[in-house]
Amino acid sequence: MMLRRITPADVAGLDREPVDPAAREVAREILHEVRGGGETALRAWSEKLGDLEPGARLFWSRADLERARDALDVRTRALLERTAARIESFARAQREALADVDLAIPGCVASHRFVPLASAGCYAPGGRHPLPSSVLMTALTAKVAGVERVWVASPKPAPATLAAAAIAGADGLLAAGGAQAIAALASGAGPLPACEAIVGPGNRFVTAAKELVSSRVAIDMLAGPSELVVVADGGADPACVAADLIAQAEHDEDALPILIALPGCDLGAVNDELERQLDGLSTAATACAAIGSGFCVAAADLEEAIDLCERLAPEHLQLCVGEAEAVASRLRRYGSLFVGELAAEVLGDYGAGPNHVLPTGGSARHQAGLSVSTFLRARTQLRISDPKAAQVLVDDAASLARVEGLEGHARAAELRHGGGRRASSFAG
Ligand SMILES: NC(=O)c1ccc[n+]([C@@H]2O[C@H](COP(=O)([O-])OP(=O)(O)OC[C@H]3O[C@@H](n4cnc5c(N)ncnc54)[C@H](O)[C@@H]3O)[C@@H](O)[C@H]2O)c1
Ligand SMILES: N[C@H](CO)Cc1c[nH]c[nH+]1
Ligand SMILES: [Zn+2]
């Protein structure tokens, strides 16, 4: 297995269409049916797609999830709890960094308050591999943001997925996947409330359905298959470089592993390592398919490597170079950056702290990954603290209203002259 080699001039952006048109049509039909047919249609589609045995449980309550957590083997439960604690600490630090604002301007206080959404639906993929780590990343972050009702959706949930939902503090779990799960999260079904936001990664049917409901509910992003760019110099360990590329390649045949090789990077050794490490790997078939559509590119120097990274704007960017900090300070476009060979991307996948739900397909140019901000809205407020000092605002509003020909606005402003009828309540 060898990485295909291309020249720097052939490197375009990663701009992949986030939604597959064929999947969109399938998702449209499913959304329409589940929106109209509720729980019955949701169950029918889940059974038809092989996600649910006839008559099997579709909804898990908080108490059910806690029982699943308690039934999990002690070591896996402790592992999930430790991981959750790290993700939660990072999310709490993010939340605390978002300060409310109260700006005093003459006669006025202009404010914003971060207010959480009331409900969130967190999709965790379950088609190929159960991803309890994605349950923690999404549901825990929503809870830290202050979202009151958090539901997880995942097809054929594994015991660890159910336990992760309990550990994240989820209020319930929908044992369904694909577009039908997104439809139910958007419209509500049985005990599941219609959610104000739907987040989390998924396959093309999930992504298509998220796009289709995005006019009615907030979504985090249209996340596609995993991507990793590794920048490696002559000091990089070929075994680490190959292992990092394989790790993301094993997610999906459409995953995209890319190597940017600086002078001195031994491409032959990396290819040998790919061959060696793929031999006997349980996920080799998927990883090989992804590596087959990945590539490597030789950069003449650090400048060119940085330029390529900025052009690609990948989901994950791994720096296996001696001057990792200096390079990091020059980069702006990535979902998550892993600075130095020791900071392996997989440590981010499994909850070192930063979230692993990240923008793909070049959208990291303008989009950030999932965070507490995904579930918060800066709502603004205005207070008049001193009507006399605020006269300039009243006069300016009335004047500007007349410039715009909006006489009603002008009069509404002028009625506040001197504090309006309640002027006495401002006395002193
Ligand atoms: N960007 C990120 O942050 C991130 C993180 C983790 C995983 N991922 C990606 O998430 C994806 C997970 O995909 P997955 O398939 O394992 O799980 P999934 O849960 O997203 O999708 C499985 C569901 O798809 C539906 N489905 C399957 N075939 C269908 C069909 N023909 N018609 C209609 N619906 C169908 C089924 O209902 C099934 O439950 C991968 O692409 C992976 O790379 C991305
Ligand atoms: N690499 C994925 C994000 O693209 C996240 C993940 C979950 N489990 C393992 N990895
Ligand atoms: Zn991963």
UniProtKB/TrEMBL annotation:
Residues the entry annotates as binding NAD(+): 123, 180, 203
Active site: 315-316
Residues the entry annotates as binding substrate: 226, 248, 251, 316, 349, 404, 409
Keyword Aminoacyl-tRNA synthetase: no
Residues at which Zn(2+) binds: 248, 251, 349, 409
Obligatory cofactor(s): Zn(2+)
Keyword Zinc included in the entry's annotation: yes
E.C. designation(s): 1.1.1.23
Family classification: Belongs to the histidinol dehydrogenase family.
Name under which the protein is recorded: Histidinol dehydrogenase
Species: Engelhardtia mirabilis
Organism ancestry: Bacteria, Pseudomonadati, Planctomycetota, Planctomycetia, Planctomycetia incertae sedis
Gene: hisD
